[in-house]
Amino acid sequence: MAKQCKYSCDSAAETLEWIKAIADFIKPFSFLINAHVVNFFKDRLWEAVDEDWLQCLSNESVESLLLIPSGIVQDHWPTSLKEFILTLKSLFYPREQADLKKVFPNFQPTSLNSVLAQGMNLKKKHEVEVLSDIVSSVASAVRADAVIDVGAGQGYLAQVLAFEHQLSVVAIDACSHHGKVTNARAERIKKHYMAQMRKFGSGNQRLNVPQTITCNIMSLETLKSLTTMSSHKGDFQQPKSIEQDLELGLAGRGSSLVLAGLHACGDLSVTMLKTLLECEEVRAVISIGCCYNLLSEEGFANAQIQYGFPMSCGVKSVNLSLGKSSRDLACQSAERWKILGKDAGLHNFELHAFRAAFQMVLHKYFPEVGISPSIGRQGKALRRKQQRKIIKSEPQAEESTYSDLPQMACNMEEACSVTHSGESEAEPYWDLLVTSCCFRASLGNSYSSG
Predict the structure, then answer these.
(1) Residue 163: exposure state from Cβ atoms within 10 A (0-12, 13-18, ≥19)
(2) Which of 41, 254, 428, 437 could crosslink 15 through cysteines, CB 3.0-4.6 Å?
(3) CB neighbours (10 Å) of residue 160?
């Protein structure tokens, strides 16, 4: 039976204790954490694994191997192996779905009509329905004047918050195309709602339409400036530069904001949390973080002054580093293996083996291709990194488009809602979440592949 987690994150001190326990556990296995599964085969890393473990697992059934990440062991396994897996399981951050009605007594997800749901797949529709109600509840509780949808994409969440929940919303995204799509969708939705108002005799009612801003949020200062600009009443014009607005000292006019993010990737989630701590206008953050592999990390050749991990001084004192391979491995959820059958499990392992074999062929016969590993997720991550460098070298897009209508005042993935308290306990909690997600998948994947 797997050990139950004996740690908690009820306070910053307890959270740090949990992270230290993880750090102490994984340091002896750095050769696994820092290697992509392709390298596990190519570089013969199994030779560093305990021989008794290898002999035991080589004769084990696929079904038993698939249960390892879930903390299920067999009685005949070596004691050291069983202790390793059970300890690993006890350190996991539990992935349990919260009872949202206990957290938000008035929680009642909005069932989207066909106009609002246009273009959404079932997963996205479910996420937007649930998250929009949570954002609306939090915004009401903190009496926010507006919501900023950070990394808004095509504006699905922003439009539901504006049209259905009657909130003032600013949608920020780095892609100008997304801003155009958001505005086009908003126009179609607006026509539908205006037709409904005329039909039911409420034609004089004002409609909230999301404002859109196209901007690469590359730093905390950028998002802080955007929150400052968005908190002002009345007409708004884009400044000549983001930094110029900071110099104007426009903060502190009494407005309150909520930052929301549906799949706020990489450093974006970190930036939102830091903005909460540093901006008086921001009263709460509701963020569903993702793509932890895209986090920037201190000490790994990052030119940025501000890093996405670690955030807290406590974790920095532990001297824990995750590394690129560890973060990439975290994208592969080993816990999902337990739902695979024998055939699917074998296919999963074969894919890794073929990928490694292909990498070895490239390395031997086409070395010029070769920054190893250059295929799979690592290859994608490398290309993304190169693309981000290109984006950073270009002038940041500072286009801004707004509606001419007046504004009215006013297993889903883990949602993190943090209210503004003036303290920084969110920092070690975030570090724990990132660390746990990364090391869970890293050890599960590399170890089981042996």
Answers:
(1) buried
(2) 428
(3) 27
pTM: 0.70
Looking at residue 125, its pLDDT comes to 92
Helices 79-91, 426-449: crossing angle, 10 deg rounding? 150
**Mean pLDDT over residues 63-71, rounded?**
87
Are 70 and 62 a contacting pair, CB within 8 Å? no
Q: Convert the pLDDT of each residue in 132-150 to its tens digit.
A: 999 999 999 999 988 999 9
Q: Which residues contact 118 (CB under 8 A, 6 or more apart)?
A: 185, 188
Q: What is the predicted pLDDT for the residue at 185?
A: 86
What is the rounded distance in angstroms from the CA atom of residue 201 to the CA atom of residue 196? 8
Which distant-in-sequence residues (6+ apart) come within 8 Å of 270 by Cβ?
295, 308, 309, 311, 430
CATH class of domain segment(s) 111-232+248-290: alpha beta
Rounded (10°) angle between helices 79-91 and 51-58: 90
Q: Which pLDDT tens digit goes with each residue over 299-312?
A: 765 555 578 888 88
Contacts of 285 (CB under 8 A, 6+ apart): 258, 259, 260, 261, 272, 273, 275, 276, 416, 417, 418
Q: What is the pLDDT of residues 89-142, one digit of tens each?
A: 888 887 777 788 888 887 888 789 888 888 899 999 999 999 999 999 999 999
Of the candidate ranges 258-262, 276-280, 327-331, the one whose mean pLDDT is the lowest: 327-331
Q: Where are the domains of the chain?
A: 1-96+321-371, 111-232+248-290
What residues form DSSP beta bridges with 286? 260, 417
What does the alpha-carbon distance between residue 110 and residue 131 come to, in Å, rounded to a whole number? 9
**Helix 267-278 crosses helix 220-230 at what angle (to 10 degrees)?**
60
Quick: pLDDT tens for 76-91.
999 999 999 999 888 8
Three-state SS for 212-255 is: EEECCCCCHHHHHHHHHHHCCCCCCCCCCCHHHHHHHCCCCCCC
